[in-house]
Design a protein that fits this description.
The complex is a heterodimer of chains A (625) and B (384). Chain A is an alpha+beta fold. Chain A is built from 24 helices and 20 strands. In chain A, strands 2, 3, 4, 5, 10 and 17 form a 6-stranded mixed β-sheet that branches. Chain B is 67% helix and 2% strand. At the A-B interface, helix 1 and helix 2 of A face helix 8, helix 11, helix 12 and helix 13 of B.
Chain lengths: 625, 384
């Protein structure tokens, strides 16, 4: 047999042919691989680049520091304090989570409820994610935990920031409070900050009004994470922009004095600078401690607030509406002077009959001969019935609206109500029936449909005191945004009308026989002018009137009349105006005493303890004469 | 290269002749590819030689020495060692498979020989190619298609494939099957066999499905729809695609890859190393590597074509095809073209057995090259 034959040759030929085929196949495979690379890297490269970036970069939001709220003299009314808290990193708890919590439980109190929540949080997260164990610890507890740290594996002390209101309930209605974000907030606000655990949003008051400004802009912490979500390193940190500080016109000391003066009454008081409308104090009592809402209010505390008949959660200064009663009479007097009734004189015999209806004066037996000055001083109802009858409701409403009634004052706070200043058109639109003349008379003494808020009454007083159309405002500067204030127009009443009313109000407090003479400010140069008011909250029946109207003290608290008082001081050169309302508290005129003390205190805040303008001007001397 | 006239196959070359005749260009090329691998291992370790690149370099240098030694050994010696090598590999494979099943460990791919660990399945890839080349060397084109003579190579392919499948190691089994079948094809298997066989395989796919392990089925299902399990089994595929795709045209730059270094990629230093290349060097880098591979394969084909013995031709093509199938399966796997199977990228992936096996294979290829003029009669059993 030969070593090599034709069969060898033929199989070499076959081999070569088929190798070519196989080579072609391999070439096709390489082309397919190259094509796939082209598709992945060239066509879809950018998309994959984005996904790779998303893969490795986690963006964590950093809560910016919330802006502070500062009073007119630089005192912090709402600030951020350190929040000492304890975190637990399950992965680092070498002896187990249970042991770590037990060890910690020997130092601070961990309730069963907290314990459950902690275990739930741990089960929801990866084992290297820190879980909050306790917050708002005091320094002693926090220090003790730090001291024992070597024996607390997995426990991490941490310092955060939380809102603090050092003045508690005295500022509650001005400042409002911050509380946890609700699902409703998330619907209306797409700020990513709201998703941060533990983020607080402003509710009520300044906290709500300037929430966006004080919130600031979220910082970001970009971290590189691995496939398990563990942080490898920080790529960059943008601290974010802290929220703007809000500077108020409020004077902390006056505010506290006012809150203290109102005491336990269900009351409201607004003190304004008449020259520019700055709100010096705005109080509504009882208040609440805004800190409660931040750290988490207990159901008991919440029930106590909501079931209290003095309504601590209502800011009565803005949201409480009251019949202004006789405090409406200065508005009537202004309209009277400017409508040719300056020299009107009537005889008050205690009542006025219109048709078959009898309208009573508060003073049985009447005031005798009454002119405008005496009408204001002694608050004669019959005189103002007559003025109302002659003016008609629309002229009255016109004057009242010029003084700010019937519409919101526009103070930079949420929840302000408009009150009511009725007109013929208003009644037709609201009730569908025409205006009655009797209603005009009742409106003339501030009863009936007319309703006003304390801030409106303070504005009314400030306008009469200054002769200018001032608007209340409570924020001076937000952040560093200084805006020029709008020019203050003169009040569209004649000077004579304003001076007549001012002198009438001066007589109320400073002339014997005035309704508030007993509560005048005796200190020379600090004198106040004012106007008392009583708002009836019940209907006095004819039968009761014949038997003798019941004294307030004989009635249950919630049926007693509201006591109102508007005032400005000093009389000679008015600087401050004040409206004070004590719900169901007309007896003994506590509101007048409060206003007196408040206005005196406010004036004496002047560093020299001197009246802001002294000696008295010609106007007040003339009135005394 | 001027062919020196060897009058008879009995003539032998001196060691010096052989050393000079080694295709050093191919060795250089292999070195370049291996260096790409070192760079990638250096990168996935976060810019360190530890724990992978350094070890890999040592193994590569040892492998190159092995390559040269293997190249110097006469091709007829390798021919005569073909069956014993196959027998040994089969024995080890049976031992591993049995140990795996008896030990209850499930997947068992390793066997410990003193301090050395090795994968018999890797050994089998080379020895199967050797044994088939040895067997087919003795057959004429017609004889390849004779049923009786065809049964033996089919058994030689089938038995280790089944054993490897039982381990279970789908990737290696596929390569064994592909290597063997392609060699039969190159030896001249009649189209009358090929066409019905291909048709039969296609028909058998549903049956084979039944025999797959659950995890294998899961991989295939996940492959078909990666989004179905984006954080579970689909994770490998989608993260690998993200890594390669995010490289774009020119890549993120050496050591700048984020996917692998942040552990988004499983098996980043072994089976998925190609993704790091794609991420850091982009389209340009990947195509360059594929071109290098293609050139190596071209060398292999040329060596096969220039061999004067059928054993040499089939051995050279078998080694080349084995190398090619590694590349194809690994690249297609990481690019999401085929399901994930455990096949490393030759010369690039970290792994001792694979590196030594590949370089041993290239040693055989070089031996074919060096001994290309040696003619071996059909009925020769080699020397020894």
């Amino acid at each position: 047999m030969p070593l090599f034959d034709r069969k060898d040759k033929s199989r070499y030929a076959t081999f070569s042919r088929r190798t070519l085929l196989v080579t072609g196949g391999m070439g096709a495979v390489f082309a397919a691989l190259a094509g796939r690379l082209y598709q992945l890297q060239i066509i879809n490269g950018e998309e994959y680049m984005t996904r790779a970036e998303d893969n490795r970069v986690n963006q964590r939001l950093l809560a910016p520091l919330r802006g502070r709220i500062i009073d007119r003299f630089g005192n912090e009314l709402a600030t951020n304090r350190r929040n000492y808290r304890v975190l637990l990193v399950p992965e680092q708890a070498t002896e187990g989570v249970g042991a770590a919590l037990r060890a910690l439980g020997r130092l601070i109190v961990i309730t069963d409820h907290q314990h459950e929540r902690i275990l739930h949080d741990i089960s929801q997260n990866k084992r290297f994610v820190p879980v909050t164990v306790a917050e708002n610890l005091d320094w002693d507890d926090f220090a003790s935990i730090n001291l024992h740290l070597p024996y607390l594996p997995g426990i991490q002390p941490d310092v955060g920031e939380t809102r603090d209101y050092p003045y508690g309930d005295t500022m509650s209605h001005v400042l409002g409070y911050v509380a946890a974000v609700s699902p409703d907030d998330l619907q209306h606000d797409d700020d990513p900050l709201l998703d941060l655990p533990g983020f607080r949003i402003g509710r009520r008051g300044i906290e709500k009004e300037f929430d966006t400004e004080m919130r600031g802009t979220a910082g970001t912490d970009r971290v590189e994470v691995n496939a398990y979500g563990r942080v490898i390193r920080e790529l960059g940190r943008e601290p974010g922009v802290p929220g703007s500080d809000v500077y108020l016109t409020v004077d902390r000391d006056v505010q506290q004095f006012v809150a203290k003066s109102l005491g336990a009454e269900s009351a409201a008081c607004v003190v304004m600078d008449v020259s520019n409308g700055d709100v010096i104090a705005l109080a509504s009592t009882p208040g609440f401690d805004p800190n409660l809402f931040n750290v988490g209010i207990t159901p008991d505390q919440w029930n106590a607030l909501t079931t209290n008949d003095h309504n601590p959660l209502l800011n009565k200064a803005l949201s409480g509406v009251y019949p202004p009663g006789s405090t409406f009479k200065p508005a009537m007097a202004l309209a009277a002077v400017d409508n040719g009734l300056a020299d009107l004189q009537i005889v008050c015999n205690g009542q006025l009959t219109l048709g078959n209806h009898v309208f009573h004066c508060w003073k049985r037996g009447g005031h005798g001969l009454v002119d405008l000055h005496k009408g204001i001083q002694q608050s004669c109802d019959v005189f103002f019935y007559e003025v109302a009858k002659r003016l008609g409701i629309d002229k009255m409403a016109d004057a009242a609206k010029k003084l700010g009634l019937g519409e919101p004052t526009g103070i930079e706070m949420p929840g302000e109500r408009a009150g009511v200043m009725p007109t013929r058109a208003w009644k037709m639109a609201t009730y569908g029936v025409p205006w009655q003349q009797g209603e005009t008379l009742v409106t003339g003494i501030g009863q009936g449909y007319v309703l006003a808020t304390p801030i409106q009454l303070a504005t009314l007083a400030a306008r009469i005191a200054s002769g200018n159309k001032v608007f209340p405002r409570i924020s001076r500067v937000v952040g560093n945004k200084v805006e020029p204030r709008p020019r203050i127009d003169a009040l569209p009443f004649s000077v004579k009308a304003i001076e007549t009313v001012q002198s009438g109000m001066n007589a109320v407090t400073n002339d014997p026989g005035g309704t508030a003479y007993a509560w005048r400010i005796p200190n020379p140069g600090f004198e106040m002018a004012g106007k008392t008011g009583t708002a009836q909250v019940r209907v006095i029946t004819r039968a009761e009137r014949e038997e003798g109207v019941k004294k307030d003290a004989a009635l249950p608290w919630n049926l007693r009349d509201h006591g109102l008082f508007i005032a400005f001081a000093p009389v000679s050169a008015p600087r401050y105006a004040c409206a004070c309302i004590v719900e169901h508290g007309a007896t003994g005129h506590p509101q007048v005493q409060m206003a007196r003390d408040i206005l005196l205190y406010t004036q004496q805040r002047d560093p020299a303890k001197l009246p802001t303008a002294y000696p008295v001007t010609a106007a007040s001397v003339q009135n005394k004469a | 290269m001027t062919a020196r006239p060897y009058a008879a196959y009995r003539r032998t070359l001196s060691i010096a002749d052989k050393l000079l005749d080694i295709n050093w260009g191919l060795v250089m090329l292999i070195g370049v590819i291996a260096c790409v691998g070192f760079a990638m291992l250096y990168s996935v370790a976060g810019g360190h030689f530890e724990p992978w690149a350094g070890t890999q370099i040592v193994r590569f240098l040892a492998g190159i020495a092995l390559l040269v030694v293997v190249a110097l050994v006469d091709i007829r010696v390798w021919m005569s060692l073909a069956y014993p090598a196959y027998g040994l590999a089969l024995l080890l494979l049976v031992a591993t498979t049995i140990a795996g099943h008896v030990g209850g460990l499930g997947a068992q791919r390793w066997i410990e020989l003193g301090p050395l660990q090795m994968q018999p399945s890797e050994l089998m890839k080379i020895s199967l190619v050797m044994a088939l080349a040895r067997y087919l060397h003795g057959l004429s084109v017609e004889e390849v298609s004779w049923p009786l003579k065809l049964g033996i190579p089919l058994a030689m392919i089938g038995i280790p494939t089944l054993l490897v499948l039982m381990q279970p190691n789908l990737g290696t089994a596929t390569i064994l099957m592909a290597d063997g079948c392609t060699l039969l094809f190159l030896a001249g298997l009649s189209w009358w066999w090929i066409v019905p066989a291909v048709a039969g395989v296609i028909a058998a796919v549903p049956v084979a499905w039944q025999f797959l392990h659950d995890y294998q089925k899961q991989r295939i299902l996940t492959f078909l729809n990666p989004a179905s399990d984006a954080l579970g089994a689909g994770w490998n595929i989608s993260q690998a695609e993200i890594a390669i795709g995010s490289g774009g045209v020119a890549g993120k730059g050496f050591l700048q890859g984020t996917q692998s270094r942040l552990n988004f990629l499983p098996e980043k230093e072994t089976d998925f190393i190609f993704t790091t290349l794609g991420e850091e060097f982009g389209f340009v880098g990947c195509i360059a590597l594929l071109l290098l591979f293609a050139v190596v394969i071209g060398y292999g084909i040329r060596i096969a074509m220039s061999s004067r013995s059928q054993f040499g031709r089939l051995l050279a093509m078998g080694i080349t095809l084995n190398f090619f199938f590694y590349i194809m399966i690994n690249a297609a796997m990481v690019m999401g073209l085929i399901p994930v199977v455990g096949i490393p990228m030759p010369l690039i992936s970290y792994g001792g057995t694979a590196m030594l096996t590949v370089l041993f294979g290239f040693g055989l290829l070089m031996s074919v090259h060096v001994h290309r003029q040696v003619e071996i009669p059909r009925h020769s059993a080699g020397i020894i």
